[in-house]
Amino acid sequence: MRYIENPYDCPVTRAMSIFGGKWKPIILNCIGESSLRFGKLNQLMPAISNKVLSNELKELETLGLIERKEFKESLQRVEYTLSDSGKSLMPVLHEIASWGNSNEAKKIVKEMAK
Hints:
GO terms for molecular function: DNA binding. The chain is α+β, with helices and mostly antiparallel strands and 114 residues long.
């Protein structure tokens, strides 16, 4: 995890210190209200490597944003769900998704692709 120095106690800096980065918001959004296994998360995010996904899931679990549940079966099965703290981020992620769907965001991405 990468802690961001926050000498002015900025709430945005605090939040980004917890769930910011390239993959964490996407992982949280993918899990959402469901319970997902590692393989399904990997299918939903084909650009992320297994190692990075594994590390990000461990960090999210350490931060208390997701819960990892192991099932004692012949084949080990692990599922990830959002904790109450993780669920509290869903309205924020929905707003980010709404903005990402806006014409302004699409215009910016189109310019970035040039």
